Amino acid sequence: MKIFSGSANRELAQRICNYIGVPLGQATISAFPDGETYVKIEENIRGRDVFIIQPTCPPTNDHLMELLIMVDAARRASADRITAVIPFFGYARQDRKDKPRVPITAKLIANLLVAAGVHRVLTMDLHAQQVQGFFDIPVDHLYSMPVLIKYLRQKLTRQTVIVSPDVGGLKMASAYSQALGAGLAIVAKQRKSATETQALYVIGEVEGCDILLADDLTETAGTLTSAATILKKHGALDIYAAVAHAVLVDVAIPRLQKSEIKELVTTNSIPVRAIEGFPVEVQCVSELLGEGMKRIHNDESVSSLFKIDNGKG
Question: Are residues 102 and 220 in the same domain?
Fold first, then answer.
């Protein structure tokens, strides 16, 4: 078993290696003067089971291209099997044609990974679960919810309602609701632009309760903060937000600082920005991903790891 990391999240890769008990593989990643990516794997991997860890977070295109080049290098070095470990899968939101003359980019990314030489994908909390079906190779899809719930149980000590900030996140919110024994509500939203959303109304009772907004991803924080505003107007008490991937582009920072959200709880699937004056709790998913990698290497079942209702451990 050989584990290598791209440049997107080497800290997570090192923690995964520490959990598994193997050293992080040596690879040189640099750039030519014109910006082209250069990769050289510095170890013999002929006939080995190779895992390449690289979330495709911003700068998304750079990290994606780096992953593809690393996979190609491993394939040409005669690796026996190559597993792409992608804790955060960029482009997953572009999973269908919702307008004329637009691409299905998530399918394109799947094709590129397979063409480069990936034999298997291990990922976590896909924005669109149907992306798994875009691959003609095995995809293991893990959920961070069990990791986040261990922390959230300590925070949510009063009567709590789990709120999905939009209709699309209802399945995830329902899983949190069952695992925590909490109520369930939904905020209906209208998207004004790529960076701005408006919460319209709340379906469910939230008055006098603490709130956990549950979602897979936040980038601009528009959905979370607008939902928090309308929940406060409906009598909610403390409002927390739990997301698997906190991408947090520039516009998200002032929104969270001015919002009704008391704390953001997320994972280290990608490097997380610190926000001055706003608490962000980062939970480590190295054991979750590391256990998945060990089981894949040993040809064992990983089904118990990606059960979305497995939050009681």
Answer: no
- Which tens digit of pLDDT belongs to each residue from 154-200? 999 999 999 998 888 899 999 999 999 999 999 986 666 655 666 67
Provide the H-helix boundaries in 258-311.
Answer: 286-297
pTM over 0.85: yes
User: Structural domain of residue 117, as residue ranges?
Assistant: 2-143+287-305
DSSP state of 47: T
State the amino acid at position 36 in one-letter form: E
Under 8 Å between Cβ of 70 and 54: yes
Within-domain flag for 313: no
Neighbouring-strand partners of residue 30: 38
Query: Is 189 part of the annotated catalytic residue set?
Result: yes
Which residues have CB under 8 Å from 100's CB, separation 6+? none
What's the pLDDT tens digit per position in 26-49? 999 999 999 999 999 999 999 999
Q: Looking at the structure, do residues 188 and 252 belong to the same domain, yes or no?
A: yes
Residue 59 and residue 128 share a domain = yes
CA-wise closest residue to 243 among 310, 303, 140, 165 = 165
- Active-site annotation holder among 150, 155, 171, 189: 189
| Strand pairing category for 27-31 and 37-41 | antiparallel
- Is residue 268 a contact partner of residue 285, using CB atoms and an 8 Å limit? yes
Residue 198 contacts residue 190 (beta carbons within 8 Å): yes
Domain count of the chain?
2
Q: Where are the beta strands (DSSP E) in 128-275?
A: 139-142, 160-164, 183-191, 197-203, 210-218, 239-246, 261-267
Residues 172 and 119 reside in one and the same domain: no
Question: What percent of the chain has pLDDT above 70?
Answer: 94
Dihedral pair phi/psi, residue 56, rounded to 5°: -95, 60
Q: Taking a C-beta distance cutoff of 8 angstroms, is the pair 8, 54 a contact? A: yes
Same domain, yes or no: 151 and 266? yes
Condensed to tens digits (0 to 9), the pLDDT of residues 264-300 reads 999 999 999 999 999 999 999 999 999 999 999 999 9
